[in-house]
Design goal:
Blueprint: H1 2-21, E1 28-32, E2 38-42, E3 46-53, E4 68-72, E5 75-77, E6 79-84, E7 90-91, H2 99-102, H3 108-128, E8 134-140, H4 149-162, E9 168-174, E10 178-185, H5 188-197, H6 206-218, E11 224-230, H7 241-250, E12 254-260, H8 261-264, H9 267-280, E13 284-287, H10 290-306, E14 308-312, E15 322-329, E16 338-340, E17 344-346
Parallel strand pairs: 8-9, 8-11, 11-12, 12-13
Antiparallel strand pairs: 1-2, 3-14, 3-16, 4-5, 4-15, 6-7, 6-14, 9-10, 15-17
Helix pairs in contact: 4-5, 4-10, 6-7, 7-9
Length: 367
């Protein structure tokens, strides 16, 4: 018993280190202070996906960048890029406003060279953010799925066919281990073949598999979402759901959860699914039948098509841990609308490469 406990704690420790070491949100620029010393500055770009609805749950379209206000730890932010649904991305500013603060102790020449580097990188941003979203579908193929397996396959196939405006789709499945059935691709037929090739398995390690899926999605820049179809609770993971949710928040990955009444009968699973999806700006759905599953997939498709995507370079902020984000609409006539987005992120340090820390079945994502 003690040996098993030590192994479990060791794996959790490796996971904790891995979470802390994950690089996110952009790169670093080096500026020479003099011939003998150099200073490195990280230019961080934070992306938000925001759903705006009225009192009846209908999506509100036609809003502009000036209609939104963003604060991070109560510090006002300036919107750098703006995109509505699948419309072309609009770049509003080129250079991080925090660069001057980051280099307050160095000379003017050093600041200038870093600003030039940041400006050059910002020009590349729209190329990285192609229109649409990259969607990862995580399909529960555990023994919870025996009764409704074929119906679930049909629902997922219909969902894939309906994804207009989405750049690429990947299909993963999980039971005790994660299986990358179909890599991220724009070829819908390849993904559909993967759906038909899935087979039911044994125990369900949802949180282990979801963590690995978040890790894959986090390497992408732009709008990205994970759609999880789970028919029951997790009974085989070593990873707690709170760690998965925090990594998804910190990497700007939306999580949507679709489950069945079987999972809803377990209050713990229901609460976890709802908290995880809400924390990342997504939603949780609980279906009574396979017909309801199709309706849930259609709702997710509409949500992805109506999201506003905003980004900003954080203003100077001494907080090196969790940063709270607040998004509001400006004007009295806008206060009747409801906003849904993630509520913060953790500033992670690039202290170690992701590939340096082993995780179960952690083969890299195919390109």
């Amino acid at each position: 018993m003690r040996i098993h406990l030590k192994k479990t704690m060791a794996k959790r420790h490796l996971l904790f280190l891995w979470l802390l070491s994950f690089p996110i949100y952009g790169g670093g620029y080096s500026a020479a202070q003099n011939d003998s010393s150099r200073i490195r500055v990280s230019v961080v770009l934070v992306q938000l996906n925001v759903a705006v609805t009225d009192g009846k749950g209908n999506y509100v379209s036609g809003l502009n960048p000036e209609d939104f206000s963003i604060t991070e730890d109560k510090i006002p932010q300036k919107t750098a890029t703006f995109e509505e649904g699948n419309e072309p991305l609009r770049r509003l500013i080129d250079v991080s406003p925090s660069i001057g603060h980051s280099l307050q102790d160095v000379g003017k020449d050093s600041v200038t060279s870093v600003q030039k580097a940041a400006a050059e990188e910002s020009v590349k941003t729209p190329e990285l953010w192609a229109g649409g979203a990259n969607v990862f579908i995580l399909f529960d193929t555990s023994n919870y799925m025996y009764r409704g397996f074929v119906f679930a396959q049909d629902s997922i196939a219909d969902f894939i066919r309906s994804l207009e405006g989405v750049s690429k789709v990947a299909l993963y499945s999980y039971s005790r281990d994660l299986s990358r059935v179909s890599a991220l691709t724009s070829d819908r037929s390849q993904t559909l073949r993967g759906v038909r090739n899935t087979v039911a398995g044994d125990d369900a390690a949802l949180y282990n598999s979801l963590l690995l899926t978040v890790k894959d999605a986090a390497r992408l820049t732009g709008k990205k979402a994970i759609v999880v179809f789970s028919n029951g609770p997790d009974n085989a993971s070593l990873v707690p759901p709170e760690d998965v949710a925090e990594l998804a928040q910190s990497t700007g990955t939306i999580i949507y959860m679709i489950s069945t009444q079987q999972a809803e009968d377990e209050p713990v699973s229901t609460a976890v699914f709802e908290r995880m999806s809400k924390a990342t700006g997504g939603k949780a759905y609980f279906s009574k039948s396979w017909r309801d599953e199709k309706q849930a997939f259609a709702s997710i498709r509409d949500d992805l098509a109506h999201l506003y995507t905003l980004s900003y370079y954080p203003q100077p902020n001494p907080n090196r841990g969790w940063r709270t984000i607040t998004v509001k609409l400006n004007g009295k006539n806008m206060q009747k609308y409801h906003l849904r987005t993630r509520d913060g992120y953790r500033l992670l340090q690039q202290t170690q490469s992701v590939t340096d820390l082993p995780l179960p079945n952690s083969d890299p994502i195919s390109q």
